[in-house]
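Replying to the earlier thread about multi-chain prediction with a worked example.

Input:
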Amino acid sequence: MNDPIWLRPERTGHGPAPEYSRERIAAAGIALADASGLAAVSMRKVAGALGAGTASLYRYVATRDELVDLMVDAVTGELAYPKPVSGDWLADALSIGRDLRGLYRRHPWMVEIHPGATGIGPNGVAYLEQGLAALSALDRPAQAKLEAVAMLSGVVSLFARDELSTRSSTTADGRAATARYLAAVVTPERYPHLAAMFGSAAGPGPGADELFERVISALLGGLLNA
Amino acid sequence: MNDPIWLRPERTGHGPAPEYSRERIAAAGIALADASGLAAVSMRKVAGALGAGTASLYRYVATRDELVDLMVDAVTGELAYPKPVSGDWLADALSIGRDLRGLYRRHPWMVEIHPGATGIGPNGVAYLEQGLAALSALDRPAQAKLEAVAMLSGVVSLFARDELSTRSSTTADGRAATARYLAAVVTPERYPHLAAMFGSAAGPGPGADELFERVISALLGGLLNA
DNA sequence: CCCGACTGGGTACGGTGTTCGCAAAGGAGG
DNA sequence: CCTCCTTTGCGAACACCGTACCCAGTCGGG
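Result:
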């Protein structure tokens, strides 16, 4: 029922000038999240980082979720869309995918965002427009193109999640525990294929970057049946 | 450092017989989550549903996250793997995808689970084994097959998320707010492709089921370059 | 000029995960 | 059988969380 934050003016003109701003608050939250994850972004911590009282944040933001919306849209702005489009739709889509992957690398807490449950902001709109622009030459229904952009974004987030869970030190404990469990329970009799996998050397593989491009190409091909 | 719950025996033999069990606790959590989402699964509520004291749960589970691990593995058990494999690897993989999609429909809170951050349990192992079994006929490195299973699972979760966010009533408010924002800000001059999309009728499309199959086929094809 | 809307923020409420300490229970060894 | 000693259940407490309320102080528009 209530309007989203993007429709509420930041300032009405009346009263004393605000001491902070949505932008500064979002930046403080992003700094916290970059350093310690999304769970570390609490109203008290953000307010503390700004030297403000906790309750003051609610003059700028109706709820913590809105703060997160602000943060998400702020980092989405790093993509600096719109950008020119080459005309090769697959190349342009891959470029968007690479951009987004870089974003996830810079802000790992973004994998903790549930897309769809979060409100879209101006930079999110620009992102969607860029995605549709990349696919504009294709003769497909607009809805299918939007689905393709959503799928592209989702698959990039899957890659980011995977990359993160294999590298991050915060999940190292859990990985070690899981590895110990697997070692204890995976026997060739009960789980032949898994056991064979542990036996085979963990070769370097085709390189994550090439895999990334190949998966996205295949995905978009399937979605837009080019 | 600490062993995962799956390596800790539920009972040592000493002392009085436990009044509850991991299974019952997980079932209580699942009931709560099915009805009201993962956020409703709190130690106090689960304990209350069982008629137990809150602190008692910690005799069965080291942490709330472990309770969630229990819940995830319990619902994974609904898949009842292993199942026979037909020999047509794509058909078998699609079958697994459909099974998983059904699981998400029965337990929508599963989309709130961050895969990889959660510890895998016995039924999760069985799931992976089933996935590898489906791909066993393919002459590809075991690592690539595991990646394919992970991607398959991830894409299914994306579909589930999408299906949920367009249907669920709990997100209706946010959707309405976003729709109002888009209506206010998307003009043909600034966002031509998005504006065109709103202009075009929202035709029924090719059907979500057919899309699902097509995307997964394309994805696995790209991953396993068949 | 001054009224009224706005800002900052201390305090408080109800919720959360988790720890501690203790009373009671009951299997294991003598 | 009897005693120990581990284990169980759990009330109380701690530290944190998001958020609502209220009030004092500060400006801008009529």
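The mean pLDDT of chain B is 93.

Feel free to reuse this layout for your own posts.
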